[in-house]
Design goal:
Length: about 200
Amino acid sequence: MWVNAFILLIYFPHHELLWHFLYKGDFKETSKDLTIVRLIHYCHLLLSMMIFEAYQMYTDFPAFSLKELLYLPALFFYTQGWFYFAHRLMHHPNLYLWHKEHHYFKEPPPFGTFYCSTFEHLFVNMGSLMIPLCLFSFSQITVYIWAFTVLHNSVSAHMGIRYRGSEHWIHHQKFTVNFGSGTLFDKWFGTHESL
């Protein structure tokens, strides 16, 4: 639970303060009430924490083993694949209704990370985090490191102006490229673009 408290009380507020301090003047205020955006973001973050907490309560974690390091490439590969295909699927005209909320910002702020529909959050975001943890048996420390790494990458990709030219920033500009959380699957399927 202390990891969840750290994320909620220190990690995200730190990114918001950093974003406001460095980029507030460059961010075009929108007609959308940013309080609502933050509220949705933090509600989805709390939902994630509850799912993660339930997973921890009902999991018998093995002791840490160096063998876990052998599974990490598979974990990264799975997560990259799940996020790429699930995110690309959300851009299909029949499903985009559930995803367009996330694309409200052309310059994505950190509190826009989880600004999306609950369906998208559970299917795309939580699917890429939780399914591999259920498939493989990892120690609790590896699970915490993994969850924090996934969260940090998501928030960092939504730091807006700081990462202009990053793949995810380009995705928020064009919508039809850079669906992955990394470049591997985008390069394989011809959807990678960089500046």
